[in-house]
Amino acid sequence: MNDCITYAAPEPVFAEPWHAQVFAVTVALNEAGRFDWPDWAERFSKTLKRHGLSRELDGGEDYFTAWLETLEALLIELGEASPDRISALRNAWEEAYLTTSHGKPVRLRQE
Amino acid sequence: MPHDDHDHPHALLPPEPALRVKALETILTRKGLIDPAALDEIIDTYQNKIGPQNGAHVVAKAWSDPAFKAALLEDATSVVAELGYYGRQGEHLVVVENTPEQHNMVVCTLCSCYPWPLLGIPPGWYKSDAYRARAVREPRKVLAEFSVTLPETTTVRVWDSTAEIRYLILPMRPAGSEGMSEDELAVLVTRDSMIGTGLPKVPA
Domain check: are B81 and B142 in the same one? Predict the structure, then answer.
């Protein structure tokens, strides 16, 4: 175990744009009453605990990876998304990025 | 060159998790469960409007106004709500006061519960396994790594946040700050001093 906590200041609130996005989606759903925060915290802490078994989490990228996994599982459980649907749209977005000229806005093709 | 067409004939492909987040956003937006404009507003709020300056305002006010301080220690949630600091992750706030006898520090061993309305989004180290595990087990050693050394006679108490209760530390007003205005005092209050892993700045 790394016993040294490195303290670097100041740091950006979100290191990656997708960290901000997944955070905002979760807060928006909570505000809309789709789940309450204690429930979220309990689920999220379970994911963190599971991920932390195999390696030490640094609270950066791995923190939001656990966050995203928790949100996906929660939405699937609530019946708001399915693994197939997530995977289909993930592929559609990948294709949109790969087929959009650099500098142009990336949009999903009409399905 | 960051925008070299030879390197990127198409738009730069975001990392895998970013594609998965976009997939969720699309699903939820199409169902009318989220609004992309609202997401931008949430991000803007947490990136630019909410941060440790809010907590610093509260601490400086407590240092300047004994009646406010007494009320704050009694019922922090409603006192800070009156200043406009309320909302997500600030539902039940408890303020604990540092004294020469007792230094307080905050951790969330469960995940990363933190008083968002007063301090913003927690720093990476607060969310790390190392801090979450060691703050409780060996707080003095952790404090030393943050360059905080306390007198032997000061006890250290660690407060474990939950999804229901968040803590804010009221640090001791630094020596040499007598006669300073509330605004001048607020500048001395660092984020870490309100988590308990730091001390306020000492006036120059």
Answer: yes
Query: Domain check: are B147 and B103 in the same one?
Result: yes
In degrees and rounded to multiples of 5, residue B4 shows phi and psi of: -95, 115
**For residue range B117-173, what is the model confidence (pLDDT) as tens digits?**
999 989 989 999 899 999 999 999 999 999 999 999 999 999 999 888 999 999 999
Q: Are the C-beta atoms of residues B96 and B149 closer than 8 Å to each other?
A: no
How many independent structural domains does chain B possess? 2
Q: Are residues B23 and B90 in the same domain?
A: no
Tell me the C-alpha distance between B71 and A11, whole Å.
33
Co-location of B141 and B100 in the same domain:
yes
Give counts: helices (H), strands (E), chain B: 11, 4
What are the residue numbers of the active site of B?
108, 111-113
Counted across chains A and B, CB pairs separated by less than 8 A come out at 191
Nearest to A59 among B128, B134, B162 (CB): B128
Q: Specify whether B20 is located in the same domain as B103.
A: no
DSSP bridge pairs for B156: B103
